[in-house]
Amino acid sequence: MTQPAQTPPALQPVRWLNNQPYLLLTLTSLFWAGNIVLARHVAGHVPPLTLSCLRWIGTFLILLPFAWPHLKKDWPVLRAHLPMMLTLSALGFAYNNAISYWAMQYTEALNALLIQSAGPLFVALWSLVLFGVRLTGAQLAGITISLVGVLTIILRGDWSALASISFNRGDLMFASSLVSFGLYSALMPRRPVTHALSLISFTTCCGAMMLLPFSVWEFSTGATLQIDLVSMATLGYVVIFPSTLAYLFFNRGIAMIGPNRAAPFFHLVPMFGSAMAILLLGEKLKLFHLVGYLLVLAGVVIASRRASAKPDI
Prior knowledge:
- By secondary structure, the protein is an all-alpha fold.
- The protein has helices at 12-17, 21-41, 48-80, 82-103, 109-116, 119-131, 137-154, 169-187, 196-220, 229-257, 259-262, 268-280, 287-304.
């Protein structure tokens, strides 16, 4: 009898991580939190459309050597489902990314984090409208609890501060990026069955090509990328962490537990963002931080639990 192939010891941690959806989605949120903080920090220094285009070109080039054998094998499936693949590329890689970077030229990090907290609701709305997938009671309760935690952190425990927050065109742009990514998340379970590397390399390549004309237009307006340490460090981070790793992790997480159970992990983004402010910017840890963190974590745990009935995908 043929013995099953053994996983090489060096790949065993990777294989283990690939089967941990909650850890994958948590790491995704951590990387995306750093992306928002960094995008606001370099606003005005790195042109947003150029950054978006270079982000996906870099990600594609990193993945291509590993993805090429799978791309050749999966090409007939990808070609047969080209409209869906182009839609995923436009929603999750071109529009969502470019408009969120562009929005950070005009909005504050506080507003962006507030709007980010609505991410799970957009996923749930698209899932309901397109496929009739309803939130379970636990998912709705978990999203609500974690949303309260997010607002507690962002508002620093002072709910009256909501009345003093004003929104501008950057906020509307950032909200539209979440609408786009919510649709991407809802469509992901309906994607063609391919290897994960085929999926992400194809969509990053298409996303980069869609953004290229806009990047050229941006360059023609005089917004050029400065070749300096800040620009190179920014590109290095966004290509590796919130792009290559985060999208691989996010796609795998959704494939394993579905969009509605994965969506509450969006609320970890502002939680990690505030933690970064404490660790990197010297902000002091306050009681409202701890209360908010506990509420977010409790909500995510409740919402992401597997229902006893049929799954939501």
